[in-house]
Amino acid sequence: MNKVLLFGRLGRDPEIRVTADNIKVCHINLATTERFKDKNGEWQEGTEWHRVVAFGRTAENCEQYLSKGREILVEGRLRTREWEDQTGGKRWTTEVVASNITFASKGTHAEDGRNGGRNGRTDDHLDEEIPF
């Protein structure tokens, strides 16, 4: 079984692209933070960054409602892709292909000075899951 469940915060606004078949693709950088005690008993925090990709209607909703700092819950599967870089070397990346994204916060962005998602909306109606 290939299943991923991540809860975290967007590190930047979603990046949107459109395929040759006119399908939207959204790339998200998601930070997850873990608290743990080190060998001296001191609390530490560790942050992991995850690449998340969404397609179609899910990508459209991400473009419309998500922005830097927003907390989300992502359900999906892992996928590793390989490609050739400009010098001819092989490169790999592992990303989460999202099947469902749930908004976990109302979109108050103290980090970047905005309130509510885009264009100053408060997004109060996003308390519940939006079907993607």
TrEMBL record:
- CDD domains per the record? SSB_OBF
* Positions of short motif Important for interaction with partner proteins: 127-132
Q: Which Pfam families match?
A: SSB (PF00436)
Basic and acidic residues bias: start-end ranges: 108-124
Locate the region Disordered: 105-132
Q: Which residues cross the membrane?
A: none
Q: Name one GO molecular function term.
A: DNA binding
Instruction: Determine if Secreted is one of this entry's keywords.
Output: no
InterPro entries from the xrefs? NA-bd_OB-fold, Primosome_PriB/ssb, ssDNA-bd
Alphabetized, the UniProt keywords read: DNA damage, DNA recombination, DNA repair, DNA replication, DNA-binding
The record describes the protein's role as: Plays an important role in DNA replication, recombination and repair. Binds to ssDNA and to an array of partner proteins to recruit them to their sites of action during DNA metabolism.
Indicate the quaternary assembly. Homotetramer.
Q: What is this protein called?
A: Single-stranded DNA-binding protein
The source organism is Benzoatithermus flavus
Organism lineage: Bacteria, Pseudomonadati, Pseudomonadota, Alphaproteobacteria, Geminicoccales
- What gene is this protein translated from? ssb
